[in-house]
Amino acid sequence: MKLARLGDGAEIFHTLQGEGVSVGAPAVFVRLSHCNLHCIWCDTDHTWNFEGTPWKHEKDGVAGYAKHRKEDVIIAMSAAEVAGIVRGFGCRRVVLTGGEPLLQEAALVELMEELRGDGADWVFEIETNGTILPGADFLGAISQMNVSPKLANSRMSEELRLKPMVLSGLAVTGKAWFKFVVRDERDIGEIRVLLERAGIPEERVILMPEGRTVEVLDHTAQWLAERCQDLGFRFSDRLHVRLWGDRRGV
Length: 250
Ligand code: SF4
Known about the structure:
The protein has helices spanning 70-73, 79-87, 105-116, 136-141, 158-161, 164-171, 185-198, 214-231, 239-244, and strands at 2-6, 9-10, 12-16, 26-31, 74-76, 93-97, 123-128, 144-147, 176-182, 205-209, 234-235. With 250 residues, it is an alpha/beta fold. Strand 1 (2-6) and strand 2 (9-10) form a beta hairpin. Helix 2 packs across helix 3.
């Protein structure tokens, strides 16, 4: 598996789930490298914004920001090695995240099978951008899918970021929650059109303010919470940003 590198090892860490329907639950995060999108505000750009790529990021121009050298941000490990690290935390909720982890679907199935080999009651969540429909082995093994389709505010082309057939396929599994990153009222209109187009049930929708700092979150959170009340959608804050800020490995 190709994982995000952190220091001498992989970006695998024990924390609290900071977003979505499991917010606050202790979990081990396993961050995979690589993504098939390159959103302008992505907070895990070390998984895709490599030297030599043409992608833009809103941090371009910030003093000290530069594209990443692959050898600094990618580490390869077997599923058994990853399972060994995960077991060491003694926590049986695991969040498979990225990047786009479904680019390595077969390795994820192997990892989940490896961990469940001890007969314990593991819970596996995946965080995915909703552009890839996984196969039966993966869908059988995963407990919960946190699907985050990208809106126009990501600056990705609609053709790349929106796959209504994939979203419909994920919705009918009954395991998917659909979490949208919202900046302003235009995003809400876009979300409602997409829900209709992909047949996503409103009770499975979570709206979350965009922001990598408390100041930016606060700018949108109050307004968005009130809009969620009006519209009947769930609201999610970004707990990890409030507790630990824009840092890796927490
Ligand atoms: S899909 Fe997610 S990980 Fe990939 S670029 Fe967009 S925000 Fe980042």
